[in-house]
Amino acid sequence: MKKILHISKYYYPFIGGIEQAARDMVDVLKDNYEQKIICFNHEKGNKVDSVDGVEVRRVKCQCKLASQSISLGYKKALKKIMKEFSPDVVVFHYPNPFVAHYLMKYLKHKSFKLVLYWQLDIYKQKLLSKLFKGQNKKLIKYADKIICGTQRYADGSPWLNQCMDKVEIIPYRVDTTKFEPKETDMPKIQKIKDTYKDKIICFAFGRHVPYKGIGCLVEASKYLDDKYVILIGGSGELTESLKKQSANDYKIIFLGRLSDDDLRVYMNACDIFCFPSITKNESFGIGLAEGLSCGKPAVTFTIDGSGVNYVSMANETGLEVENSNIKAYAEAIKTLGENEKLRNNYSIAAKQRVKDCFSMEVHRDLMLNLIGDLVK
Questions:
Q1: Is the pTM of this model over 0.70?
Q2: CA 284 to CA 18: how far, in whole Å?
Q3: What residues have CB less than 8 Å from 87, skipping those under 6 apart?
Q4: I want to staple 219 with a disulfide (CB 3.0 to 4.6 A). Which of 62, 169, 326, 350 is the partner?
Q5: From CA 100, how far away is CA 7, in angstroms rounded?
Q6: Residue 185 and residue 72 in one domain
Q7: Cα torsion at 128, 129, 134, 138 (round to 10°)?
């Protein structure tokens, strides 16, 4: 059985977009390949454990610099697993520049196939972007394949648009069964609808960080009347400032962090799904695809080079407005709120889009074909 080593920044139970994508890929391949994962430990110390029956080696992290984890023991840990496991394929989940530095020594005379899972350009940290320019060139040079979530993101990437012959577009997957309402959910869903009777329920969730654009949604609420209520799930560094920003706006209700069960309930109870991300940090929008899977019309901003506007198609599964245009965002919410037929049409299209493009079956087939072609 061929062997695959995944190099991820962190790994489940740490929750993040890169980590979820890594876990989804491991899950797809686990019946056909022997796999191991190496990553930083999001807790203390070094640790070896198992997730979904696959070994995970977690390396102690001493500190973080510009959001990048730094580990004094990583070089030794990587050397050990490369020697002992001797992988046929290495999947490097990008960006992870500290680890890429140590991976470089294995590339020039590599005995394995290298797959870059390109999840995000480094562009916000301008200094880091320049510092790792040479590193990126080498990674791309030695890569056998590069996975990207959408063609739109690849086209907008200053790195990927130069090596399209290596790029494979594999959209992230959505587990639609995760959001199918259970019988026990129905009273909770109805209670939410009764609580906000005669109102259009708008729902948003995610980490409260700048690129998620929750502040734009809070501002947009000021242009809506009392016919609307905006429920916001999640938490983060901006939570308190967002609450101050929305002071005296009784349409906005912060729900805090939501369990999977609560998220499923609110997702199915709402009328409109608000996804106000504003930068390319949102390279795809798993949460957006999950909202569509529940048949919820979405309201998004246009983000140049992001996959967000591929996940939800303008005037098909929802409405898209100029980036950070608060009034336009509010008007889009009004358009959906005042037109039930339009909401229903988008709802049907949203579910179908997820089924056609982001289902677990589509993701599985594309991943298996890519890896199978590399190791045959």
A1: yes
A2: 11
A3: 3, 4, 5, 36, 112
A4: 326
A5: 9
A6: no
A7: 110
What's the domain range around 120?
Answer: 3-173+359-375
Whether 218 contacts 286, CB under 8 Å: no
Do 16 and 112 belong to one domain?
yes
Question: Closest Cα to residue 14, out of 36, 35, 41, 37?
Answer: 41
Tokens representing 64 are 């973080």
Number of compact structural domains in the chain: 2
Claim to verify: residue 159 and residue 233 sit in the same structural domain: no
Spans in the chain with pLDDT lower than 70: 123-131
Kind of pairing between the strands at 3-7 and 34-40 = parallel
Closest to 23 measured CA to CA, from 54, 67, 59: 54
Q: Are residues 164 and 24 in the same domain?
A: yes
Tokens of residue 60, six digits: 């102690």
Residues 6+ apart with CB under 8 A from 15: none
pLDDT digits (tens, 9 = 90+) for 229-274: 999 999 999 999 999 999 999 999 999 999 999 999 999 999 999 9
Give whole-number Cα distances, 217 to 201, 369, 376, in Å: 14, 40, 49
Please answer whether residues 114 and 86 qualify as being in contact, where contact means their C-beta atoms are separated by less than 8 angstroms: no
Half-sphere exposure of 197 (CA within 13 A, CB side): 4
Structural contact between residues 189 and 271, judged by C-beta atoms closer than 8 angstroms: no
